[in-house]
Amino acid sequence: MTGNLNPRRPLWAIRGSLERRTHWLIAISGLLSVLLGWWWASAGGAIDPVFLPTPPLVLDSAWEWLRDGDLLGDVAISVYRVVAGFLLSAVLALPLGVLVGTYAPVKALFEPLTDFIRYMPAAAFIPLVMLWVGIDEAPRSRLFSSALSFKCC
Questions:
Q1: Cα-to-chain-centroid distance, residue 77
Q2: Cβ-contact 140, 123 below 8 angstroms
Q3: pLDDT tier at 50, thresholds 50, 70, 90
Q4: Which of 10, 22, 125, 147 could tie 18 with a disulfide, CB 3.0–4.6 Å?
Q5: C-alpha span between 146 and 92 (Å, rounded)
Q6: What is the chain's mean pLDDT, rounded?
Q7: So what's the pLDDT on residue 48?
Q8: What per-residue confidence (pLDDT) applies to 145?
Q9: Which value, to the nearest 10 degrees, does the dihedral of the CA atoms of residues 129, 107, 109, 120 take?
Q10: Distance of CA 72 to CAs 10, 54, 141, Å?
């Protein structure tokens, strides 16, 4: 047997695969290059630190925020908003999607609206949701719900 038992796969093959080690090396180098670019742009003075602080300054601020106890509360309320919006979306949009997929009259009724609204960015719903529901906690969850509902339908 004169052939190579473990032929080297080409790195840039169309629809090719990578070895696990190669995949992780490329992924880590991609993340590190963004981090180094951020550090270079912020530390070099090219961008005002008010708009782009250095990575160590961001880590120091995050540590201080965590130590003061504000970070975990803010994370908890954000997770609550996302989960509440997702659940509301699932409760409303999934049955509606089943009805639309099952009955032609329901599809004819809702398809023009969902096709129109589906491609609107979620940020476009912010003023509408504030007008319809108010500015307390409910609109924030409803905003996530409206952003997800038209994707499910």
A1: 17
A2: no
A3: confident
A4: 22
A5: 10
A6: 82
A7: 84
A8: 63
A9: 30
A10: 46, 23, 19
